[in-house]
Hints:
Number of helices: 5
Structural class: mainly alpha
Amino acid sequence: MTTPLLPSSSGRSARGGPRSTGRSPATLLAVSSWLRGDGAMADIALTRALAGSPDYVLARLLAQALSECVRPAELRELIGRTATDRTA
Length: 88
């Protein structure tokens, strides 16, 4: 059994919060879902994030990558590379 990457409260925040404040939790839920291989949930969460904030760059970039069928492993590698670049 795997441990979820996000506490259940993050999912509730993304689904039930006001649209203007739900973009970050919804985007985080999208990344977590995508990394677990749940592209459908990632798409729903990104749609939610962009509905309230269509100019939210992180959500737009992730939505574009998801629509281009970037695999979870590729996303994980990109996140790891970005984190390493920031600490170097």
